[in-house]
Amino acid sequence: MSSKPRVAVLGARGRMGSEAVKAVTAAEDMELVAALDRDEKRETLTEAGAEVAVDLTHPDAVMGNLEFCVRNGIHAVVGTTGWTDERLATVRGWLAGSPATGVLIAPNFGIGAVLTMHFARQAARFFESVEIVELHHPGKADAPSGTAVRTARIIAEARRAAGCPPAPDATTTALDGARGAEVDGVPVHAVRLRGLVAHQEVLFGDEGEIFTLRHDSMNRGSFMPGVLLGIRRIGQTPGLTVGLEHFMDLGS
Ligand SMILES: NC(=O)c1ccc[n+]([C@@H]2O[C@H](COP(=O)([O-])OP(=O)(O)OC[C@H]3O[C@@H](n4cnc5c(N)ncnc54)[C@H](O)[C@@H]3O)[C@@H](O)[C@H]2O)c1
Ligand SMILES: O=C(O)C1=N[C@H](C(=O)O)CCC1
């Protein structure tokens, strides 16, 4: 990779993509060489000599973009959501054919959001009950948020490893959705409200005690230090990395 990575942004006219274009342009240690949105051809990436592509598009678009990048040896920093185990396996398959290429999939670029997940992992085994509430702007396509899904999986994994029983819940009748979506056994509730950007609460409860982790992204600029960190690190990190925490030296 060049000493100043040559960066392309996909989804450049979107809420996140337009912020990323500004952030990359303002960063002195990288160069913006392409800014593409829907209906612009992916070949622009290779023509512009892009070394890192930042994908901030849509769950329906991200796989095609990523396949093109990996097949052309372009590293990718992905904020787009909609990830499943099957999709991750497909990306690993592409990367097997391009072993020097790196892909970072970051469910959330917010430093505080990554720390919320890190602390949730630590807290998970100490409380009988846990539920997640995520709150986002009404323009969001997916529910629950990628961050909430990842947080639930991290908590569930930590609770399984510690041998925790399922959280108590005496509900026998409920309207559809009243108890949220169950992600790996953790109830996740999604709110969509004009005025919100991206917010999450992780609620832990035990006898006489509630412990709450809350993170608020008040604007999309809050995600940009994480996007830039991903761009700076992905060239030295071949293969698939899921979660920005792997670039944050958080320890265990
Ligand atoms: N990881 C994070 O920290 C983080 C933060 C915010 C949003 N997101 C995710 O990023 C994605 C984008 O969010 P947003 O709020 O900016 O959405 P948005 O709808 O404002 O922007 C998406 C942009 O992508 C464009 N697009 C669609 N298909 C495309 C394609 N094939 N090639 C190029 N561009 C294409 C659209 O025209 C649009 O301009 C969503 O999946 C969202 O959940 C992630
Ligand atoms: O605005 C969005 O859309 C966001 N998507 C990510 C998610 O689904 O977790 C990150 C937060 C903002």
TrEMBL record:
Which residues hold NAD(+)?
A: 11-16, 37, 79-81, 106-109
Alphabetical UniProt keywords? Amino-acid biosynthesis, Cytoplasm, Diaminopimelate biosynthesis, Lysine biosynthesis, NAD, NADP, Oxidoreductase
GO process annotations (BP): diaminopimelate biosynthetic process; lysine biosynthetic process via diaminopimelate
Q: Tell me the protein's name.
A: 4-hydroxy-tetrahydrodipicolinate reductase
The Dihydrodipicolinate reductase N-terminal domain is annotated at: 6-109
Q: Which PANTHER family match?
A: 4-HYDROXY-TETRAHYDRODIPICOLINATE REDUCTASE 1, CHLOROPLASTIC-RELATED (PTHR20836:SF0), DIHYDRODIPICOLINATE REDUCTASE (PTHR20836)
- Which NCBIfam families does the UniProt entry name for this protein? dapB
Q: Specify the taxonomic lineage.
A: Bacteria, Bacillati, Actinomycetota, Actinomycetes, Kitasatosporales
Highest taxon listed in the record's lineage: Bacteria
